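Below is how a single chain appears once it has passed through the pipeline. First comes the sequence as given, then the structure the pipeline wrote out for it. We keep one example in the README because the format questions we get most often are answered faster by looking than by reading.
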Amino acid sequence: MIAGLAKSLLMSILVVGVPVLSHLTARRIELRLIPRIDLYVSAILSQWLLASMAAAVVWLAGPGFRAIGFQRTPASDLAAWAAGLAAVSLAALGLVIVLERLGLWPEESDLVQILLPATRVEKIMAVGVVAPTAAICEELLYRGFLFSQLSQWLDSPPWALVVSAAAFGLAHAYQGWHGMVRTALLGALLTIPVIRLGSLYPSMAAHFLIDAVALAWLGPRFLKQDQRTG
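Resulting structure:
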């Protein structure tokens, strides 16, 4: 009974609570005045807090870490899937940037631009801490815990993919509707190796590569951004 309540509560937080908080956060004007490094620290702590909650639920209430994707993956499969997923995702992101510069796609939200690193220290923190945090925590939460639970509850991995990807997109409400759509599609893409291999590691590796390149190069190079230093 308690185990079921804990799982349901965490699922509610991921599907409803995080999207609502993301939406409310995007409306806070004062957020635009906070130094970039402080925003990074806040995001890192929030993600590790949620991931720790999920890890505690999985450990104490089941189904166990192996069941949600923490199992050994052949190095060749890991490298091939990670490289392929990252290449497809970054190519799609590059296309979006081109369309944006041509005026054929909405501009990124001001919060996305504010979060792009501008100084060397910010880039090091973005690649060395922010990107791996997102890769580990978000994959554990959405492709690990949430997808696993939805697969059991819905008795349908395809529908579990749709719902978990939608929740992942909604969690990025601060990016605007176009950012949520893009993120939901990424979430669906990152779920494929979990279904095919039963492992989270390829998705984690791909997620890291995507965020690292986007934060360190693609975003700062091609998008307008706030010029504050952290």
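The chain has one domain: 2-222.

See the next section for the split statistics.
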